[in-house]
Write a structure and sequence with these properties.
This protein has 12 helices and 18 strands. It is an alpha/beta fold. The strands form 6 sheets. The chain has a 5-stranded mixed sheet.
């Protein structure tokens, strides 16, 4: 029986920059061979889907052809939603195959550890494979060789890239052409998790022995000041503590620090590996039991149980000299250590309040070095 409530409509999927670039490149190469742009242009995605894309811009002259497609990210809050993805295709030397170039708004790789080597345009392997396949399809249909130069550009891409992790990863000058399936799944968080993996890969390739995974920008900045680490050692894991730790278990670095605000770190201490608010709130009674272990008197225990927020609970404990933060830091460290069990990683934790002040820490087990001064 209906309860009278309407269900939210399903979230609309969108297309990756890689899919848009592939469609634009296919249209431009077709125009070179036939004098006409297919519009819409259909491509085949890695999993067999065959979407069609409407062209937003076309141009052809003696040097080559250019086609542009406006990216539609569906209902995903993607920084590149609405961006114009442009492919300029020129005929290449016989036997040269498909070569890729970064135009305005597309970045260049400058650090090791990324899917393509330094000096290459920031066009990931799957989009490259998709474009090669599309060029080969058109070439075979017209009985020619697919020797072309493809330049991908994104007007305004350099400004958009400031909203991404590109600069930290060593992708300079613009955006990346991404995608493994060609499809953007709304709120899948796959892009964020992918950036976590890339951050770890870059740190390992640079030979860094210590990385920091933080829950947000405040804790990240505070941890960097506290530990004096370079930017390449910083991994903004957000809510994905489990995703970061599981990747580190297979791709270890000698030392990992997890830094975060009191609420998210308390969730980790309580065994949560996904720290998003939609996955549940802090167990306040469990926090009271931790406060008891830290020496909180009965009245403070009641105040913590009735506090409006986790942050307020910590403020109440701090005001009475109870080191609640250290207890939570130790518990969070122990939960993280279980996830990476078997990997040769020393793991420690740092807790910061909203102002970025250290309110709790736990050294790696067996690490008896004194903590940095506060």
């Amino acid at each position: 029986m209906s309860n009278g409530m309407k269900k939210d409509p399903p979230l609309r999927r969108g297309w990756t920059t890689g899919a848009c670039a592939t469609a634009a490149a296919k249209a431009a190469f077709t125009a070179i061979l036939t004098g006409e742009f297919p519009d819409p242009v259909t491509i085949t995605l890695p999993r067999g889907q065959t979407p069609a894309f409407v062209l937003a811009e076309t141009n052809i002259d003696k040097s080559g052809a250019r086609a542009g497609i406006v990216k539609d990210a569906g209902d995903d809050p993607d920084a590149t939603d609405g961006a114009l993805i442009v492919a300029t295709v020129r005929l290449g030397a016989e036997g040269s195959g498909v070569r890729f170039f970064a135009g305005p708004g597309v970045g260049t790789m400058t650090k090791p550890g990324l899917p393509v080597p330094p000096g290459e345009p920031a066009i990931n392997p799957t989009p490259r494979k998709m474009m090669r396949a599309a060029i080969e399809e058109v070439a075979e249909a017209h009985g020619v060789r697919g020797d072309v130069e493809i330049e991908i550009s994104i007007p305004g891409g350099e400004a958009i890239s400031t909203k991404t992790f590109n600069a930290r990863l060593g992708i300079l000058g613009g955006l990346s052409i991404l995608g493994t399936t060609g499809i953007v799944i709304p709120f899948s968080c796959s892009a964020w998790i992918h950036s976590i993996y890339q951050s770890i890969d870059v740190a390992r390739a640079l030979g860094l022995s210590h990385v920091v995974g933080s829950t947000g920008s405040t804790s990240e900045a505070a941890a960097q000041r506290h530990l004096g680490l370079e930017e390449s050692a910083l991994v903004e894991m957000g809510d994905f503590a489990g995703g970061m730790l599981k990747y580190l278990r297979k791709h270890p670095v000698p030392r990992v620090t997890i830094a975060g605000g009191v609420a998210k770190m308390t969730k980790l201490a309580q065994g949560r590996l996904d720290l998003h608010s939609k996955k549940g709130s802090v167990d306040r009674q469990a926090l009271v039991r931790v406060a008891l272990r830290a020496g909180a008197p009965a009245a403070l225990q009641i105040s913590i149980a009735e506090a409006n927020t986790t942050a307020q609970a910590f403020e109440l404990a701090t005001a009475e000299g109870i080191r609640l933060g250290d207890e939570i830091a130790r518990a969070a460290r122990d939960v993280a250590a279980e996830v990476i069990a078997g990997a040769d990683i020393a793991i420690d934790t740092l807790l910061f309040n909203r102002e970025g002040r250290l309110v709790g820490e736990a050294a790696a087990i067996g690490d008896h070095q004194p903590p940095p001064s506060r």
